[in-house]
Amino acid sequence: MSDAADTPVLRARGVQKEYGKGDGLVRAVDGVDLDIAAGETVAIMGPSGCGKSTLLHLLGGLDRPSAGEVLLSGRRIDNISEKALARMRRTDIGFVFQSFHLMEELTAVENVELSALLAGRSPRAARRRAEELLEQVGLAGRARFLPSQLSGGQRQRVAVARALSNEPQVVLADEPTGNLDSAATLDVLQLFEGLHGSGQTLVIVTHDARIAATADRMISMRDGELVDETRLTGGTTGELRAFAGLED
Ligand SMILES: Nc1ncnc2c1ncn2[C@@H]1O[C@H](COP(=O)(O)OP(=O)(O)OP(=O)(O)O)[C@@H](O)[C@H]1O
């Protein structure tokens, strides 16, 4: 196998993040080593405040570590210029947040195409890609709706479509179902499962054991450190839907 195939999509080495100083010093992430392979789905779990979101932000270049290295496909991202970092976030990473972070004044299709436009695609190519993605997430019929005209689950599906618009190397999701009810959670879960099946690398911070159960690997965090990891064989959302009485 070539070196490129062996290189993890994401690698963290001795990563630390401190906030504040003196008595107010908080070490939110405390010496994390982590490799995430291409095509892997990894769930990060742990109690509130243990550093999950901070770690995800460091992995995605939304924030820089106080110490240690973060590498995307073998290239350091913790020490590159702001400009290079912004470009990398636009083209190589897809983010999905708990509160969706959609632009309220833009329609679903405009929200999705915006990131493709910002990454330099032509308006026609961006629109075509956005329409394809909305179809993929089951929202072709809602493309011209504003976020306020969509349900929470539909909004999160738009956000997932947006995250995929530039064919990112990795999608990072921070509590993607935290604001959704059970049925919408399972819809989004099924969407992630489809992405996993298509070989998309995914890192999901979640409190939801159902989401974690469908990952390849579940990592537990405590007090800024990775304390445990479990390889999973993976339940399917079909089974979960049946269990929850949501089968169509
Ligand atoms: N900008 C900041 N300034 C100061 N402290 C911060 C900042 N961001 C996070 N922290 C602290 O770092 C620690 C980890 O926070 P983080 O949000 O990463 O935890 P989390 O595990 O994602 O929590 P939750 O599950 O509640 O979202 C917490 O103690 C938090 O108060």
Automatic annotation (TrEMBL):
Native organism taxonomy: Bacteria, Bacillati, Actinomycetota, Actinomycetes, Micromonosporales
Source organism, top-level taxon: Bacteria
Matching entries from InterPro entries are given as: AAA+_ATPase (IPR003593), ABC_transporter-like_ATP-bd (IPR003439), ABC_transporter-like_CS (IPR017871), ABC_transpr_LolD-like (IPR015854), MacB-like_ATP-bd (IPR017911), P-loop_NTPase (IPR027417)
Q: Which named protein is this?
A: ABC transport system ATP-binding protein
Biological source species: Plantactinospora soyae
- The reply to whether Zinc figures as a keyword in the UniProt entry is no
Q: Name one GO molecular function term.
A: ATP hydrolysis activity
Kindly indicate whether the keyword Nucleotide-binding belongs to this entry. yes
Keywords of the record: ATP-binding, Nucleotide-binding, Transport
Where does the ABC transporter domain start and stop, copy by copy? Answer: 10-248
Q: Which GO terms describe its cellular component?
A: membrane protein complex; plasma membrane
